[in-house]
Amino acid sequence: DIQMTQSPSTLSASVGDRVTITCRASQSINVALAWYQQKPGKAPKVLIYKASRLESGVPSRFSGSGSGTEFTLTISSLQPDDSATYYCQQYQHYWAFGQGTKVEIK
Amino acid sequence: QVQLQESGPGLLKPSGTLSLTCDVSANYISNDNWWTWVRQRPGKGLEWIGEISHNWGASYDPSLRNRVTMSLDKSNNEFSLKLISVTAADTAVYYCAGRPGDAPRWGQGILVTVSS
Questions:
Q1: Mean pLDDT across chain B, nearest whole number?
Q2: Between chains, do A100 and B45 touch, taking CB under 8 Å as contact?
Q3: Which of B4, B6, B22, B46 is most worth mutating to test chain A (most A CB atoms within 10 A of its CB)?
């Protein structure tokens, strides 16, 4: 089975900072990767799919890149509303999720 | 855009059977699409339970394989999850999801609590 390793597990940054979260797959998944934002008590919200495609309605400060086994989610200018937990997910072979990254605002 | 909605009992007793249904908006449950169940235990991450397709059958996470069954009712645009012999460790929010197009789509989730 494909394992997803996400880092860091938590990060604290200031409003306006550029933030990067990394996700690594245990084998190549091409671009079959999505990024989610989850706030307490809510379902995960798709931000990015196919590694780099921005979901409709998601602010353009979110972007995704990568292919094969290495992927990144970047928030170009962190906003207060971005405080949440972020997950990567592969859907190349079944589904598997990273452990999550909790983003806090300083 | 496809919409998904979970339904089922929110409270179960230990050793009981969890049964959930996911209604999928019309015409999306086609022969080739895969439909998925994911759960999230309190304070924890997302766990894939398994998936089902009309054409290809079902696949389950190895840790749950001996307790889980999924089914699909194409005529009613729904798919279901059954988990037997539940314990408190099965308390979680259960999500149905799928990827009929390029992007994954999720239901809003349903909290299932296992307690005596």
A1: 94
A2: yes
A3: B46
